[in-house]
Amino acid sequence: MTFPDILLLAGAGVIGGLSNAIAGGGTFFTFPALVAVGLAPVAALATSVVAIWPGHATSLLGYRDELRREGPRLSRSAAIFALGALLGAALLLASGDALFRGLVPWLVLAATLLFAAGPMLLKLVRLHRKGTTSPGVAGLIEFTVAIYGGYFGAGLGIMLMAALTLVGVEDVNAANALKNALATIATTIAAVIFIVTGTIDWIAGGIVFVGAIVGGWLGARIARWVKPAALRAVVVAAGLLLFWSYL
Questions:
Q1: Contact by Cβ (8 Å): 30, 52
Q2: Mean pLDDT of the chain
Q3: Taking 70 as the threshold, does the pLDDT of residue 192 lie above it?
């Protein structure tokens, strides 16, 4: 690995970690950087998942009270998310690089549009949700989102917030706590699968990991001065550029 490759990966990790700390979307920076230094698409995504996993896990520290209150709901959803993420990660590995490479532009475009429309989507869901979602429908929604989280995962936070709103979680703090917990479950399961199957490039992933720690640290300290909408615009622009470059 050349010195410019190391700089690229470290820089992508910093930007990805900072983005995740403020608005999300770090995968839009880490995944293409890993592909650019020569990793195959499946290995690049798997390595990205493992490298930025700690950001999901540490985000739970700020929501301990909410998670205690939402313990019963989280317990019901955890098994669904674990199974869905397991299936999603298995589907990614079964896809192989050729098929996944063909899907990447469209997955990136879908995630970018979802990320861009996130705030509006949440408002629409809250506005038009009627009554209580049945447990069966709620479980199906969560299972579908979990499969996506295990397979690709970009924009997972927006999907989770919309899904939680649909199933009746109205308190914003509770929704954020559950979102982070379920995202951690999905990424943990996927990461374990990728590690066990030997899909990870540990050198490249380690560099991104260090950068992501720095970026997360910076993001936590400058979040109050950076408007999420501005960073969201940068992430959307990066996603559209990535879509175009992979066509």
A1: yes
A2: 85
A3: yes
CA 67, 47, 28, 228 torsion: positive or negative? positive
* Measured distance CA(87)–CA(82) in Å, rounded: 9
- Residue 176: partners with Cβ closer than 8 Å, 6 or more residues away: 63, 66, 161
Q: State both tokens at 242.
A: 């990535």
Which residues, in sequence order, are CB contacts of 72 under 8 Å at separation 6+?
A: none
* DSSP output for 36-63: HTT--HHHHHHHHHHHHHHHHHHGGGGG
Q: Which contiguous run of DSSP H or E holds residue 153?
A: none
Contact 231, 20 (CB under 8 A): no
Q: Which two tokens stand for residue 26?
A: 């770090």
Q: For the residues 87-91, what does the mean pLDDT come to?
A: 96
Q: What is the DSSP letter of 117?
A: T
- Check residue 37 and give its pLDDT: 96
Query: Best-predicted range by mean pLDDT among 84-93, 115-124, 210-219?
Result: 84-93
